Fold SURF1-like protein.
Amino acid sequence: MPVAPTTDPVATDPQSPARPLWRTILTPRWTGLFLLAAAIAAVMSVLGVWQLDVYQSKTAAATAKRAEGAPVPLESLFSVNDGLPSKAVGRQVTVAGTWGPAADQLYISDRRNGDRDGFWVVSPVMLGSSGTEAGAVMVVRGWVATVDDVAAKAPTGPVSLTGAIAASEAQDASGDAAKGRVLQSLRIPTIVHLVDYRIYDAFVVQTSLDSAAGSGQAPASVTPPSPPTDHAGLRNVAYAFQWWIFAAFTLWMWGRMVLDAHRSDEDDQADGDVGPSGTVSA
């Protein structure tokens, strides 16, 4: 019995090629929406950068304020029994007392002064009044080319000075302590074992000598280390990331909408290509 040929378009016609995604993107509707989404994302990105600039400005201002504030007595910030508070680093302080034993003076090697290598001279100042012992603070008096320099001679007598608080350096110098008074780094944990009295958990880098008994040649002045960054305005950093997330979400939403529209068009095209099935004759 002969069989009539099928008239099913799916069987007789080649399958229509899938519509490329870029054709959907280039339609006026989606191109226009992309330009709008890109403009909104750009504005949000700029707002994020602006918030980051606000954070940096607040941070710089807070850091500078700490370093430029009026000097206060060292003892008003923390005591000899306390650890160094982070907020005290870089503060200008006044120190009044008596120079400590000459035998306790130290030298920190490999320190630059212009184009020359030399040493920082570190001397203790015994604090307290009316004979009451209140510990001591190690003062970076200045720079000398050699430890035999006449300016490195340990001072004696009462003293009043102004300086900036500096924290211990990271490099370990415990091995140097067993060899003498020349250390590679400025570290309270090392120095505390070299003296027989309590010392503050900080250094004071001398910036001016207000008064001292006697006179003589002084070491070259040392620039205090830059104070640590005071991270003020951290809320602005959160705002910046929030704006950037919004910008990325805007572009992502546009891409998601385009893909959904493209798949919908493909489904409509596939439904339109399927015709009625052919009949079989007897």
About this structure: Helices lie at 9-12, 21-25, 28-68, 174-177, 188-191, 234-273.
